[in-house]
Design brief:
heterodimer; A: OB fold (Dihydrolipoamide Acetyltransferase, E2P); globular; B: alpha/beta; Peroxisomal Thiolase, Chain A, domain 1; three-stranded mixed beta sheet; 13 helices; 15 strands; about 35% helix
Chain lengths: ~130, ~350
Amino acid sequence: MLSKSPPVVWRSRIYRYRLIGCKCKNCGRVHYPPASACPYCSSRDLEEVELPRVGKVLSYSIVYAVDSDARERSPVILGLIDLGVTRIIAEITDANPEDIKIGSQLEAVFRRIGEDGETGVIIYGLKFRPVI
Amino acid sequence: MCAARPESSVGIRGWGVYIPRFRISMVEIAREWGWSDYQWKALGMVERSVAGPDEDSTTMGVEASINALKRANINPSDIGAVFFGSESKPYAVKPSATIIAEVLGITPLTMASDLEFACRAASEGLRASIGLIASGMVKYALVVGSDTSQANPGDVLEFTASSGAATLILGGSSGSAAYFEGSFSYITDTPDFWRREGSPYPRHGEGFTGEPAYFKHIVEAVRGLMDSLGLKPSDFNYAVFHQPNGRFPLKVGEMLGFKAEQIKLGLVTPIIGNTYNGSALIGLARVLDYAKPGERILVAPFGSGAGSDAYSLIVTDSIDESRERAPTVDYYIKNKVMITYSQYSKFRRLLRVIRE
């Protein structure tokens, strides 16, 4: 049985590919990834918005104990990134840990983010890298 | 008087490339496998690019396409055809073209398919796109050439097989950065290089890849183009050939009567390697990064199996508007991190690892 089911991968593709979040029409706040209700005021009156592709590092963590399918890119850097309208957590790529500082400017980039073994689906999505 | 060729109504609206930042030197590869330095010096090589562990031909194709879209400055949903040329598809069955079209916001009202013809697949997409646009069937077409080329470890191919991508967005000639004057294809059944179903690495016919394959097909395609347009080598400011190594493009150019000065700007393989479907198109992109209005460019991709297409392009006044909207080929050439052979082996998954 697939551990990463194709329907789940398919349903999430648009916000993973294009950095699409949701803006609440009631409280005006933006969240990512999209949810069926606003995480701040619970309103279901939401609209999809495209988020800025450039942001700043608010905090980050260097992960050495990674999944076996991430072994080739260990250590993995996970960042809390401020996009202005909201904050998101994403992997930081194309950088060594010493390259990343609080406040570093990053931009979204399309990469492989996982796979279901050697024969299952490949999961693509957005990571962040230092701005080029 | 000749009727206008259909190609002249079609032009390049945007171009974009992506070259991964990792590089491995020829010295490092030769040291690992005990090759003499003569081996890589004879190929005219210095170093080559390597895709990172979270990259493949699809992700690189997306990056090149985003750059091309920035230059084209068009609405993605106006693109009616997406062609992805590669011989290193992440999926044997399932198109990369649909992924790229979805990421860019081109879906769902579009054609999309992956093409295979060794290093020439994307070029077939270009000729098909010219026809689709000239006939009025689609407004814009996006053609991607992208490869993370494979080489059997220890094979001489390891010196050149690299990673990179190029995207061209074609549309009507009005407002394009360069328009086509003509195109010409020359195709035969020639087994110079192949990879069998299920085989992880390609095989090649050593010297057989040269005279009857690369040289024969490019010479015939370029001569066919020049004859049909009434042009001679000195009429071109630049000539870009498929570049499997650093020597072949100079030699085929000489055979056709081109001078090294016409070829050098578009010759990128010595410093980034052979990016297969990206090879001639990255060379063309570098020429577009510098070319001036009115200049004429010859482009001749080649693919084993075997075939070549030759195109003549005229640069227009619009080229300066779009040039600065995306990173140039030279930016990616300079943006590099040298890696060891063991890092290369790990990144490209040449090591046998049991995943838990």
